Amino acid sequence: MDTMRDRFAPVVSRLLDEDPRVAVVLAEIGVDGFAEARRRHPDRVINVGIREQLLVGAAAGLALTGLRPVVHTFASFLVERPFEQVKLDLGHQDAGAVLVSAAASFDWPAGGYTHMAPGDVALLDTLDGWTVHVPGHPDEAAALLRHAVAAGDDKVYVRLSVQSNGEGLPVDGARFRTVREGGSGVVVAVGPMLDAVLAATEGLDTTVLYATTVRPFDAEALRRAVRVARPDVVLVEPYLAGTSTAAASDALSDVPHRVLGLGVGRRELRRYGQLAEHIAAHGLDARSLRERIGGFLEAGVRA
Prior knowledge:
It comes from Streptomyces fumanus. The chain has 303 residues and is of the alpha/beta class. It has 12 helices and 12 strands.
């Protein structure tokens, strides 16, 4: 199966052909995938070189002229390194763009800590007005990329990952999807965490919600779920643990509830290892998730 990133260049190249407002801004990463598109649209496929601050600044300039820039590189170089430009050039100037990342939290362990960005969504949470898509399958990535580009002049972050669920589900760029219903609690699985969550909760009487758009947070879906299930909520996110716990608590502010945030820990893993080893080390494999989710929900029953 191809990866989410494999879908990126073909989808956006078609959007360049279809919409004269679309422009692509790259910082060396991914340039080869746009070779043909650059021949067709030399004025709208721009490579700024390894200059990530310029990457975002140039995109903001294009947006202010009326274009819809799609900006791409590794997450750590797209959100963390040029954060001041994301904050000021895009946010402060009300300039919209579609930021599309690669490498997720630790997709390429051999790249070391410089190429890991588990805090990207939490960092964007410090800013106003960002939509954040976290697809869990290449089909969902393609759909959400199109949705993001078509979203007027909004500020949108699309987080691509090597990790993927076995099957894609219909996504609308807004709402959580109910995958399983139960009464003993609610588990929200974000993007590529769905398969592991379904395996971890097999046989448990839990509702499983699937989230591929996490900002804005679908508060109403969570509120509906806790009307039929005990208001014990577990969030399983493929980035920094606890990123969405405040959003979940805000959604249930008038309901007595418990929230557990599972995701990537803050402790730096200094051995390169393999992707699966990093997943396990952060407790995001199915077996670890079953222990942590089961223990949390059982404690709620005893309380």
